[in-house]
Design a protein that fits this description.
The protein has 95 residues and is an alpha+beta fold. It has one domain. It contains four helices and four strands; from the N terminus they run βββααβαα. The longest helix has 13 residues. The two termini are 21 Å apart.
């Protein structure tokens, strides 16, 4: 299934990510992306929207939008998918 991903900035490190599919189903997720997380990923020069876009594409390859937590911190993805940190670095580097 194809998804559209829309990202909006709420506060300094809080973002809302809206995932929509072609049949009109929509989910909204509140994601914390701290400066520390961006540094841990080694992506300091990459925009947060790009990091979130790639993170959600990564998640959508593994689970449905409804299965993605409604609220979480970016690095929590590593708790469920240990390959996330390495894979996101590669995805963002080749974009």
């Amino acid at each position: 299934m194809n998804y559209d991903i829309y990202i909006s900035h709420d506060t300094e490190d809080i973002f809302f990510v809206r995932v929509c599919n072609e049949v009109g189903t929509e989910t909204v997720h509140r994601v914390t992306v701290s400066g520390e997380a961006v540094r841990q990923l080694g992506l300091g020069t990459t925009g947060t929207n790009s990091i979130l876009q790639h993170a959600f594409l990564f998640l959508l390859e593994r689970e449905s939008p409804q299965a993605i937590k409604e609220e979480f911190a970016l690095m929590e993805i590593n708790d469920y998918y240990p390959e996330f940190e390495q894979e996101i670095k590669g995805r963002v580097a080749i974009k």
